[in-house]
Amino acid sequence: MDMIFVVLIGAVAAVLANRNIAVFNDGLRPIVSEHIEGKLSRRELGLTAFAMSFGLVIGFGIPFTLSASIILIHSILLGTDIIGILAPKNRWGTAVAALIGGVYGWGLLAGLEGFVKLFDYLPVNFLEPMGQVGDPVVVTFMAFPALAVALQFSVKKGILTFAAAALMRQLAVFVNEGEYISIGGNAVAINQEGMALIVGMIFLFAYAMKQKPDGDSSIDLASVFSEKVKEIKKNVGFFMVIGALIAGATNMLLMAGDPISLNLLADGNQTDAGIAAAARAIGFIPLVASTAIATGVYSPVGFTLIFVIGLFSPNVWIAVVLGALIIFLEVTLLNYIARFLDKYPGVRDSGENIRSAMTKLLEVALLIGGANASNAIAPGFGFFFIAGFYLLNEAAGRPIVRMAVGPVGAIAVGVIANILVAFGIMSIPQ
């Protein structure tokens, strides 16, 4: 059943990309729109998709998938973006895209199981230390609303947001340690990072909703791009299918929508993962909605609420039904969301700032996590390698995105450590 879900997700996502209906890479959506309008050839689109997504699959999606033995959605959907767009846009091309997309999904899941077993035969099994890559991410995630506020409004307001979030976190720790909340005589622990995140998001949206349109600066997105919205609505059936599949796979703990919830799932914290996924989804609604409305190209995961549905549903079949329903509602409400974003331009603009804040936070957290994992694999050498790897990557113009330096570096240290042990140059770390 696991394999059926993953294969179908790969096949359907590749078809959506092939038919120019939906792509996962946010930056690719406007480029697909250029191709639809005849401004970009299919070959140029394919090369662009490969250049934009291949590095993220290898350097971002796959390392996280390996570190937690849970598929990070980026590793499958960025790959199906490439597969679908490189295949010709005709009847045979669509069938080929579906076939290769399904095989790719199968290979990802089957290969994952093989990789996990392979680590047991290595002199230095670095799979467990790889889990440390994501440890700082969970703790530092609560800071992203403060950074988004600082980027969009002012550093002063960002500091105020950060202070309020930090205070809430410590209050939650105090309440948990004192066991002040109980149900039926049993102490209930509240998630301190989750509470801090909620406070930060409240500050962010409170500031954003205070920002009003300046005179005639507001643009009626729904009316300007009505034809593009109609095109998205026409394909709502496709979105419901893939939404149902991804929600079901998430409920089965086969995949996660982001590194934060993935690491929480790896630690067995499904409720906390759902809260983190919800916060991310709320923050990404302005970005996904505005790019979809402007380009006529949707995301196969919609507003990412399907991951929240999957994590909080009691079983896989309820997740499947609700996943299809939530995607249907998202597409149906696109016009209303567009009008809301026009009414509150601060909320519309917050989408890009939230994305930037998350990216910056993940760059720092994953570098720290990668350094810690590398040092656990090869004490001393690990810190040295990550520092050198980061600096040389910067000097070379960042051929590897900063976010991927930590995870890729940790994998490289694991490979090097095994080679050194095999040649007797290094002893097996205790």
What does this structure look like?
A hairpin with a 2-residue loop joins strand 2 and strand 3. The longest helix has 33 residues. Helix 15 packs across helix 18 and helix 19 packs parallel to helix 21. The radius of gyration is 22 Å and the shape is globular. The chain has 21 helices and 4 strands. The two termini are 39 Å apart. By secondary structure, the protein is mostly helical. The strands form 2 sheets. The protein has a two-stranded parallel ribbon with strand order 1-4. It has a two-stranded antiparallel sheet with strand order 2-3. Helix content is 75%, strand content 2%. It folds into 2 domains: 252 residues, no CATH class; 163 residues, no CATH class. It holds the Pfam family YhfT. This is Transport system permease protein. Keywords: Membrane, Transmembrane, Transmembrane helix.
Largest sheet: 2 strands, parallel
Order of helices and strands: HHHEHHHHHHEEHHHHEHHHHHHHH
Low-confidence stretches: none
- From the alpha-carbon coordinates, what is the Rg to the nearest angstrom? 22 Å
Structural domain tally: 2
Q: Tally the helices: what do you get?
A: 21
How many extended strands? 4
Alpha-beta content class: mainly alpha
Cα separation of the termini: 39 Å
- Give the overall form: globular
In order across it, which strands form the biggest sheet? 1-4
Helix content: over 70%
